[in-house]
Amino acid sequence: MSTSSSIGSTPPELLFVLLHDGGLAPDGPDLLAPLADALRQQYPNAALVALHAPLRDETGRCVWWLGPEPSPDGLDAALPGLIQRVRAEAARLDLPWQRVALAGLGDGALLALEAVQAEAAFVGRVMGFAGGYLARPTHAPQDVCIHLMHGLADARFPYHRVVDAAQTLVSLGADVTADLLPHLDHGLHPALIEKAMGQLRTFIPAKLWREALLAAQEEDRASRQ
After folding, report:
1. What secondary structure does DSSP assign to 61-84, as a single string?
2. Closest residue by Cα to residue 168 from 143, 139, 129, 203
3. How much is the pTM?
4. Which of 67, 69, 106, 168 has its CA 20 to 30 A from that of 212?
5. Are strands 46-51 and 14-19 parallel, antiparallel or unpaired?
6. What is the DSSP string of the chain?
7. In what order do the strands lie in the sheet with 125-129?
8. For the chain, how long is the longest CA-to-CA vector?
9. How far apart are CA 63 and CA 75, in angstroms?
10. How many Cβ atoms sit within 10 Å of the Cβ of residue 223?
11. pLDDT tens by residue, 52-80
12. What is the pLDDT of residue 112?
């Protein structure tokens, strides 16, 4: 199930898909509401969609995120329905995948991160709060900016796994940031949201740096002729 909203009367320019922690019922507390509010303030012409478990896969079977504990089998069951749902929302809004972002909390972060590992040209950005990969990444997702926000006191998902994943992604050539904040336990803390908003505003993907460098080199060669 999901809830959605868009701000403004003009067609949205961006789509943010928010993924709740595993097993949270749609009528439970909306733990991602503060993040949704921050996104609305920073991107007033964006569409927001909040996805809750269960989703339905292509056969109509209900899929509860990852099961009682994240596992490869649970991931394989959950990803097709998630990918199908996000692509359908982007198509409905006539937005290319580069203008779609995933933001997940806990198991939702794991799903978002693993989705871009499994599916090429899926979304342009991922924000992972208090969660990480099921397994160490083996390749860098192409043209995806990954932002990890984590508390150093998170006992449910230890921060060293986030550090290891970030270092691995950097070595693989990915665009990734990792903000680790002291004294924060598992959850969506205001300080993590603030860090995420800052990364969305200021982070420049390596691809754009390369394109700018090539353009400057071409301009320099042209001026010498």
Report:
1. -EE-TT-SS--HHHHHHHHHHHHH
2. 139
3. 0.85
4. 168
5. parallel
6. -EEEEE-SSSPPSEEEEEEPPTT--TTS--TTHHHHHHHHHH-TTEEEEEE-SPEE-TTS-EE-TT-SS--HHHHHHHHHHHHHHHHHHHHHTT--GGGEEEEEETHHHHHHHHHHHHSTTS-SEEEEES---SS--SSPPTT-EEEEEEETT-SSS-HHHHHHHHHHHHHTT-EEEEEEETT--SS--HHHHHHHHHHHHH---HHHHHHHHHHHHHHHHHHH-
7. 2-6, 46-51, 14-19, 100-105, 125-129, 145-151, 175-181
8. 67
9. 10
10. 7
11. 766 655 565 555 556 666 788 888 888 98
12. 95
What amino acid occupies position 124? G
Distance between CA atoms of residues 193 and 179, nearest Å: 11
- Token pair recorded at residue 16: 């943010």
Query: Which position has the token pair 């995933």?
Result: 102
As given in the structure block, the two tokens for residue 217 are 């080199």
Q: What residues contact 213, with CB distance under 8 A and at least 6 apart? A: none
Residue-wise pLDDT for 160-190, tens only, equals: 999 999 999 999 999 999 999 999 999 999 9
% of the chain exceeding 90 in pLDDT: 63
| β-strand pairing of 2-6 with 46-51 | antiparallel
State how far the Cα of 18 lies from the Cα of 36, in Å rounded to an integer.
Answer: 8
